Amino acid sequence: MLESLLHLSVEDMRLRHALAEPGERAGLIDALAAAFQRRAGELHCAIRTYLPPASVRPGGLLEGVALAHKDVFETGAHTPGCGRPPREGTPGPIATVLQRLQDQGALNLGALAMAEHACGATAENPHGPTLANPLDIAAAVGGSSSGCAVAVAAGLVPASLGTDTAGSVRMPAATCGLVGLKPTRGAIPADGVAALAPTLDTVGVIGRGALDVACVYAALLPAGMAAPALPGDMAGIAEYLSRPRRWRVASTLGTAGARADVAAEMTRFEQRVDALARVDACPAPDLDRLNRLAQIVLHAEAALTLAGSVRRELATLAPATQAIALPGWAMPAIWYRHAMARIAPLRAAFLASHLGGADLLLTPCLPQGVPDRAAVTTTSPAFDPRALAALHRHHAYINYLGLPALVLPAGIDAQGRPVCVQAIGAPGSEPLLLAFAHQFALPFSALLQR
């Protein structure tokens, strides 16, 4: 019974709940929680598990759907640990995003592991075991929403909420062959969510497929905002995502300097898209400049956000946390003011040059492939700082510009690991990005059968 409740999609879970007799639904909810607790314990991906309610709110988009989320959200009963050892604290009001999921009938089964204070591009955290990639034990798991990716890839839940400050939803999704959505800045409320750099922070969604992500994303939107782009019901969302379109796509996939096997997979993906789209090559963004500005904002705001932790816990803070928080204390204020002042004009220039005549822009995600876990673990003899830096090179600048972006699996490399690409859109284009992923992403089942 427990095994049959793993690897289910949002649609499967909702259907099981709907078909169960009313008197059987409490037992089904308990079974979902038991399956989650057992596998989460084996994988070390959950910091805390929750007892589910006996019933859920009926009639919602996510009625009976079991989810679990990064340990940064106020639940109303527990204060988030943010990747640190559990501590006592007075819980705040439930985060709006969790309340909206609950209002749509979703279950919250647990708080998932993460890099300390969301400061890390991998699953490395000195306060707990390093998580294993369910697709390949030798491969890295991206961070900081690492537990989200592990739980979804291992089939514990069909989708999960994380946060993305410099790629922290998209990197773990890419390393585990999942769909990861970072919405437009401000589209999803952040109250009740532990902050790192508020200008860059975004609540995002990781799921096995675009339909799973789209259903959770639609549930996060305020009432009345889902239509007409994303309807408020499962059938309507599926129809929207599957609707035939003549795509207009700009692509920088050929400019990546990618490893040969990764480049070959991206080329095959681009050719597949080209059969149903107009694909035009365009120059790559100025990554060095944009990422430098994003880094200034990250350091400056993290220094303020984590000031209390630095004062209280400096001796036990992870090296990655110190590397992000401490530079901001010494940074000239004029650097931060300059970086903030440049966001609007640089976003306008980016949209004009890369998305002026296109629905979306395709960029590489991890052009050197998913790295070995040892190569990006700072305590490993095989640690390569270049491999660690490469994880967020194609992600951080999008947070700075405040644009929506989505990663999707596009192929399988010579090592049997996923090759993902990134689709970037104009503000508010999340439904279009999800439709693109629904139509072109490599099914997750193909990664399991590699």
TrEMBL record:
Residues 57-434 form the Amidase domain. Coiled coil: none annotated. Its EC number is 3.5.1.4. One of its GO terms (molecular function) is amidase activity. It holds the Pfam family Amidase. Keywords: Hydrolase. The keyword Hydrolase applies. This is Amidase AmiD. It comes from Achromobacter insolitus. The lineage of its organism: Bacteria, Pseudomonadati, Pseudomonadota, Betaproteobacteria, Burkholderiales.
